[in-house]
Amino acid sequence: MVMGESLIVEINSHLALFRDLLIHVGQAKDCPELREKIRKLRRTCVEAFKHTEQILMPQVKSATADGVLTDNPHLVLLFYMAQLFLRELVKSYRLIQVVPMDMSGYYERHTALDTNGPWASKGRNNYICKNMNLLCCVSRPNYL
To answer: What are 77-94's pLDDT values in tens digits?
Structure first.
């Protein structure tokens, strides 16, 4: 259970940072770098939720398999944090609709996101880069 507790604390800190960064959208500190930080942190939160769910659900299923459904405080905390995260995602989506930002200049400066970036183009490597873009969603997002 110690691992579950540490994952819950980690998600909580990521969620708090996500909320803090959203406060700056549309204000003087708003910039493409901030939007990129928010996007990366959002993906980190999603991955942390997935990882924690994969660890907690076998424990819940084993407790349910005995015929008795016991309370799992980590699962309850994860549920409430997921609800909070969903509200923050809706808020971020609405903020981006109200306060759009042109990110094309930011992505042009960061050529590592392009498949034709600073690396020499080889047939197989280019193919791998394109597939990694699909798998990792490195492509340019339409918001955050």
So the answer is: 999 999 999 999 999 999
